[in-house]
Amino acid sequence: MPIDFDDPANSDTYSGREADPSWVAAMTSIVDPVGANVVDLGCGGGTYARAWRTLGAHVTAVDSSAPILESARRSSPTAIAFECAPAEHTGLTDGRADIVFARALVHHLPDVFGLATEMFRLLRSGGIAIVQDRTSQDAIRRGSPTNPRGYLFDAFPWLTEIESRRRPDVDEVKAAFTRAGFNDVVTQPLWETRRRYGNREQYLTEIAGRTGRSILHELSDGELAELIEYVRDRLAPGELIERDRWTLWTAAAP
Ligand SMILES: C[S@@+](CC[C@H](N)C(=O)[O-])C[C@H]1O[C@@H](n2cnc3c(N)ncnc32)[C@H](O)[C@@H]1O
Fold first, then answer.
1. Are 6 and 65 within 8 A, CB to CB?
2. How is the chain split into domains, by residue range?
3. How many CB atoms sit inside 10 A of residue 158's CB?
4. Quick check: pTM over 0.85?
5. Ligand 1 neighbour 42 (Cβ under 6 A)
6. Right CATH number for 8-139+162-194+245-252 from 3.40.50.150, 3.40.50.2300, 3.30.565.10, 1.10.10.10?
């Protein structure tokens, strides 16, 4: 069953994580966040809203889930403004943003054009939209010590179908942004260190809680227990650094 973002039981699923320097380096190579007005759509636990704030931006973070947003608010500085609204209809004023950002949101949306249209509306002329998501090529890779998520598909190959279906296609997103009126729609790969774990058991505790990985909600409790043993057998007990491959789409408002 897909994750229910509105279930209070999932309120902390995207909380408790901070952005890695690999992500910061990628963003600052694209935009200058100092003093910029940033809108973070589908902000989850606020990981990236806080990162933009630390980089010197004025941040408004939007999420459609009240419990998830409340969790983000609790763990973030008061300087960040939080709004509970759908990313496609935020209700924020036109042209207010220098940067509109959406990470790991597109693969949860039925229609990327609605998001592109709202990003276009929110940006001032010359502003930049940044979408970070994983295509199926990014998401479905063999398991390895730096890609333990891949063991999910090795252990349960039927999940590949579910994952492929929900993942955006590079050209589909590009076309939606062009159709919404953006110029210079380009893509680039991003390798982001997701998290550093002191040891294997810390990682497995997150998996057991289905934390921050919505695909795990597709598994029954029994399958999840099987997965944990499968992964435990394949990882060394010590430190683990999880690195994910993403696609970044950037687009400029004319
Ligand atoms: C996978 S999480 C990503 C969270 C955060 N951006 C990150 O990268 O850590 C997706 C988030 O999008 C939110 N979401 C899903 N559909 C949404 C929509 N239509 N509008 C706004 N938020 C949405 C969910 O509540 C969830 O918090």
1. yes
2. 8-139+162-194+245-252
3. 8
4. yes
5. yes
6. 3.40.50.150
Does ligand 1 come within 6 angstroms of the Cβ of 213?
no
Say yes or no: CB of residue 68 within 6 Å of ligand 1.
yes
Q: Which residues contact 33 (CB under 8 A, 6 or more apart)?
A: 27, 52, 55, 56, 57, 99
* CA gap 170, 150 in Å, rounded: 21
For the stretch 40-60, what's the b/e string if a residue is b when 16 or more beta carbons lie within 10 angstroms of its beta carbon? bbbbbbbbbbbbbbebebbbb
Which residue's alpha carbon is nearest to atom 1 within ligand 1? 104
In short, whether 131's Cβ falls inside 6 Å of ligand 1 is no
Residue 104: CB within 6 Å of ligand 1? yes
Binding site membership of 5 for ligand 1 (Cβ less than 6 Å): yes
Q: Along the 254 residues of the chain, how does pLDDT read in single tens digits?
A: 888 898 998 898 888 899 999 999 999 999 999 999 999 999 999 999 999 999 999 999 999 999 999 999 999 999 999 999 999 999 999 999 999 999 999 999 999 999 999 999 999 999 999 999 999 999 999 999 999 999 999 999 999 999 999 999 999 999 999 999 999 999 999 999 999 999 999 999 999 999 989 999 999 999 999 999 999 999 999 999 999 999 999 999 99
| Closest C-alpha residue for ligand 1 atom 8 | 103
13 Cα: distance to centroid of ligand 1 (angstroms): 11
Bridge partners, 123 (sequence order)? 97
Closest-CA residue, ligand 1 atom 14, reads 42
Provide the pairing of β-strand 81-84 with 97-103: unpaired
